[in-house]
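Thread: "does anyone have the structure for this chain?"

Original post by V.I.:
We have the sequence but no experimental structure in hand. Need at least a predicted one for the grant figures.
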Amino acid sequence: MLRRFQCCSTEGKVDASATSVNFSTLFRFATKTDVILMYAAVLAAMLNGVCLPLMVLLWGDLANIIIAFSDSGANYTTSATSDITNTSGCLLPPNATANGPVFQLFTNESDDIMDSVAVFAIGTTCLALLSVLFNFIFITCLNISAENQIYRLRGCVVKSILSQEISWHDTRTTDGMAVRISEDLTKIQDGIGEKVGLFISYSSIAISCLVTAFYFGWELALITLVALPVLTITAGILAKIQSTLTAKETEAYASAGSLAEEIIGAIKTVNMFNAQVKEAKQFEASIKPARTAGIKRGLATAIGSGLVWVLTYASYALTFWYGIKLILQSSCNGESTSKYDAGILNIVFFNMLYAALNVGKLFPFLETFSAARVAAVEVFRILNQIPVIDSSSSVGKRLTNIEGHIKMENVHFAYFSRPDVPVLRGISFEVTSGRTVALVGQSGCGKSTCVQLLQRFYDPTRGKITIDGHDVKEFNVSWLRENIGVVGQEPVLFSMSIRDNIRYGHPNYDDVSQEDIELAAKQANAHDFIASLPHSYDTLVGERGAHLSGGQKQRIAIARALIRNPKILLFDEATSALDTKSEAVVQSALDKARQGRTTLIVAHRLTTIRNADTILVFNRGVIEEEGNHDTLMNKRGLYYHLVESQEQSFTPEDYDDQNVNPPEKLGLVPGSLAQQLKAEAKVPEKNGDSVQHLLPLKPKDDDVSIWKIFKLNKPEWGYITLGVIGSTLLGLSTPVYAMVYGELMGLLDPSLQQEEAQHLNDILALIFLGIAFGTGIGAFMQTFMLTIAGEKLTFRVRKLIFQSILKQKIGWFDQLENSVGSLCVRLSGDASAIQGATGARIGLLVQVTVSILFALTLSLVYNWKLALVSGVFVPVVLLSGVLEVKMNMGQIAAKAKALEQSTRLATEAISNIRTVASLGLEEKFNTNYMASLREPYKVAKKLTPVRAVIFGLTCNMSGFASVVCMSYGSYLIQNEDLPYKEVFKICEALVFGMEMVGQTLAFTPNYGRAKTAAKRIFQLIECNSPDEKTANNTSPESNHLEGEGKVEFKDVHFRYPTRPDVAVLRGLSTVIQPGRTVALVGHSGCGKSTLIQLLQRFYEPESGTILVDDIDISLSSANLLRSKVGIVSQEPVLFNRTIAENIAYGDLTRSVAMDEIIEAARNANIHSFIQSLPLGYETIAGQRGAQLSGGQKQRLAIARALIRHPRILLLDEATSALDAESEKVVQDALERAGQGRTCIIVAHRLSTIKDADEILVIDRGQIREQGKHGELIQLKGIYHQLWTLQGLSQ
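Reply from O.Q.:
Generated one for you, tokens below.
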């Protein structure tokens, strides 16, 4: 364990089929300091185990003294110089005098019993204080060591995941991975923290007690062990069963977490297709196996627990019956000749009792260790996975000067996830330094694959790729990517400020100045809109850039690529999401940026690559044509047909070349957009109450009542009742046992007749057996019934949380605290944590309460004075427990918040791994991840010693209580003639009650975690979504949106909830007649896509009204409205399901026939591609459609929209990712689909909407121009300027 840790190594290698790791492997990341702490903890825990048997020895000595003192006729003293001698001729055991004790720890020459009690009190107090010290040492050391190791391990795991090659991510469901890893690491921490010390301490107690018992009475000790073989075999079988079921439960929850992350990440798509109910059912189905496995595990634990209690108490009955029988029957002339007396009987019994109890305490820890070992399998498997393409490695060449000469030689490639589908089939081409080469062709032909191979996301299956004559495999991966600037087809921004998003594009991002950032933004035509925002470059962009329009995101991504000043530029549809004005300016900037740089451009808009030095035309994985634009056009081959098909929709005759003005004269200069966004409208809120309420999930200050948590378990109250009955039986067993114990001690009174004593001994033994069976039944009922209740509660809470999340408005998801990662952490962590206040915890609470109350009642009945004096410790123990709960709740809340934030960061990085890898941000994200954990890590280490002291004192409170109880009890025996057996009864009942409270306190962290989780759960499930409110107040006519599809906007004002200072729509009004096709055009961020989202009721306007068929949509059900609307978005979201399921997702109100799915695919021009796949329509699309190209995803999204036959069709840049040939076919399909429907199109390519019935030009949140294409051209306004500019660019 002293070896230095490494994040990635083959040490502690995990077999592929392994379901758990060796326990020692869990400590793989312990440093020398951690090992020293652990050794100190182990030593302290072992020494702690010696204290209890020594206390028992003192107890046995005192028992002899008290019983002997009560025998007034024997004239017994404890003097070593007793005048009493053995004159009977009977054989006495060694070290015993006639009628004197066999066991005598201390000698006392005084006849005063209180002198002997003083020895007992001082010795027990000193041992208890030592135990407090040992508890403090091992709990503090182990918890600090565990915090150190897990803090380190979290960083290593995330670093290892981010360092894996892209093919590793392709073949795994990385959605939910960060959440699962966070849960697994929490389980590992449980398995290497204080529970290890408690396990060693309890084991040490058990061993020490066994040794002591056998030393003083091996025969009697053997009698007690008759049940040991059965217990051992049972424990082994149950441990194996529990391990298997835990693995199944973990796997089920991991699958459910992955599904939840995918669904929440695609929440707009889920809402649009009214899939909330379907996804809730699917999530419910995914967690059912976990519930089943949990209940089976509970059954196994219950059987084991019941058996342990039955056999333990049965062995107690046998021990006492046999021991007392030996003492009573071994007499000679009225004098005892047995080698056993009350002292030895107590020593053997209590040592065997404590040994058994502490062995019993080990079972829950074995379950914890088993869970940790199972959880560690996937964690260490990730750590042991050494990637072939390792971005974190320092190995590889780093050229001092790179020219950028690229060469591909006979490159073959197939994705690892689809090895039967060749993507590249022996392509070869060369790009000399400083030249620009464009890659064109149909979607899925291999263009983007070349870009990914050049970044070494993958390695070719055959062939070679070189840069400046060096094989890219020889380069240091990180260095290679630092010298390549990339702008992808679907730009990914991180949930941070615009400034950070841009500067992170530079390899030395910490040294980037504000001037550099602004220069890059200006080159990408992004500076003006950024400067217009209230927080300028400090504006948070939201998750995946959700607060920005598609064009704004694309421009920031371009700025991010330009700031690194790379030698090689890769543009994969870099301007696909830009409006006409921005594209012209940015294209000009890109043309300048690529001067002197080697540039590869992947493009579907062929007009953007006409000036490329070389154009490579791809077709089915091979280069079919090569040359410049003019050469290829003269060939009249594939490229010529692509250009022709794209240009057929564009007619230059529609505008007059004589009237074309430069951009500056058209007002298209930097600043115009800034002026647009700076103007703020003062808008009254709808009905005096904004509907854009933010609903953060921060816990309220109000505490959650335990009864409120119990109410969630209401359907299981039958199980809970049975569990409580079982807990009551367990709770009663302790004071009843104390009564029987006192009576058994009373049998040793020399004044009692031997025959009567033996008869009573038989009766009490039978009572003891009754306690055994009652306790066994109670333990089984408590464990099994409350496990069922707990597992069903967890199942219900997960379901409720997920359903509540799906009901929320889209604006709620825009908040940082409601990111995908954060919500998934709450979904898994809070649902599991709430069991800390229910389930088995209820049973333990009832058990302790019954035990304490019954013990106090019995004590008051026997002797109220002794009961009051001894009972003073009960409130002390309870108060210490409350203190520990309060302290833990604060710590747990802070830790939960930190884990939520850190998991969000990890989720963001893992789900966007391609962007992270291309920017070389693996280390940065890992650093941010660790920084988010640093503060709670420090706080946890600081609070650990305080909790350790409280825990140590509480666990030893029974020792202190026994000192007070026996001291005062002895006083009452001596001065008030109190029968000594009553003292034993009261002391045993209260002392064991204290120990029960101590056991309960071991679970206070779970209770504190449950209360914290409950706050957040109730806030979420009790906050009604605005949809729910309006759904309950819909007018009768609003529930029948069966009209023709008329859409009307009346004086609509709108601001996004996360940017209340920026007015997006400023009194927009228009009427769209049914069956007409209306196009929305304008600059990026002008409000086009916002209108689409408002029409889907993703948001509500601040003021104004939106009507569909003359009915206010705010008064109708959002689900009913969306069922009449079809949508194809700019960035289509597909699910990790089959292609057929993704298409059928468009209409969930019925079972869509396969023929209909195929027809929709044909209409979207995707059927042929699907048929070419080995599995056809059963092919899995991958996470977010990762196994498909951008064009293929877009066409599947179109097929999905067509399947539902909507009354209103919304096309938000629906063909932006298509190649020229596909666009023409799909455009025809969309035109056919739009016939007879109201069709609203958002487009930047004006050529695609020139035939629309009406075109609305939106500027500064208002409609500035309106009319047909020809009318707007003749108007020579904004639309004419945009058209002209696009015409010039072509």
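V.I.: this helps a lot. The mean pLDDT is 78.
O.Q.: and The longest strand covers residues 422-431.
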